[in-house]
Amino acid sequence: MNKLIVSLDGLVIKEVALTKDRTRLGRRPHNDIVIDNLAVSGEHAVLQQTGEGFVIEDLNSTNGTYINGKAIRRQVLIHGDVVEIGKYRLRFLAAEAIDYETTVTLRGQPYTRSGEGLPALTVPGQATAVGVLQASIRVLNGASAGREVALSKVVTTLGKPGVQVASITKRPGGYLLAHIEGAARPKVNGEAVWGEPVHLSSGDLIELGGTQMQFLLEG
Questions:
Q1: Which tens digit of pLDDT belongs to each residue from 171-208?
Q2: Alpha-carbon distance 30 to 44, whole Å?
Q3: What is the percent of the chain where pLDDT is above 90?
Q4: 110-146 burial, b for 16+ CB within 10 Å, e for fewer?
Q5: What pTM value is reported for the model?
Q6: Which of the listed CATH numbers 2.40.37.10, 1.10.260.40, 2.60.200.20, 3.30.365.10 matches domain 134-218?
Q7: Which has fewest Cβ within 10 Å: 47, 188, 202, 217?
């Protein structure tokens, strides 16, 4: 089922199933999703199910609607997109996503999370690196130094909830690392990940919550 995960300051407030063709978001009580915050307009945005998929449109709000940090007027949502309205973040999860479960150790503490990941798209007749190479991450420091975790799922989630969380997603063109939650940003080769996900290359060094890891591709 398509849904939005609503959070504020990194804490999940509620989960909203998108069962209507048209879902209104705003501060006034008649909206389908009410966001009671002065930074949110009375009728802020609308989410519609169309032939394109789910489309979100800003309704000339005072402070704007953002997707993954960028202001939008109208945009089709894809699985994992984060809609920002005021201080609230609404993460879109697509119905066609598949279940995943990945366990990664962060500072010696195993973290397991089940959720949804979007299946990698394929282009007929086109071979991709994802389909040929096997990816994994190797922990470089701490109690789990030397441990390798195969990235066999579409989406692998790394980190500790409420502290710092990132994801690695398998796509037709390769693997992408994205920031999910936490004030501190993950780093790839010493550079903080801001805005758009970062494409990973074999040998890249990832820093997350004090844990250092190396991304590996093997054919």
A1: 777 888 888 777 888 999 999 988 778 899 999 999 99
A2: 12
A3: 33
A4: ebebeebbbeeeeeeeeebebeeeebbbebbeeebee
A5: 0.46
A6: 2.60.200.20
A7: 202
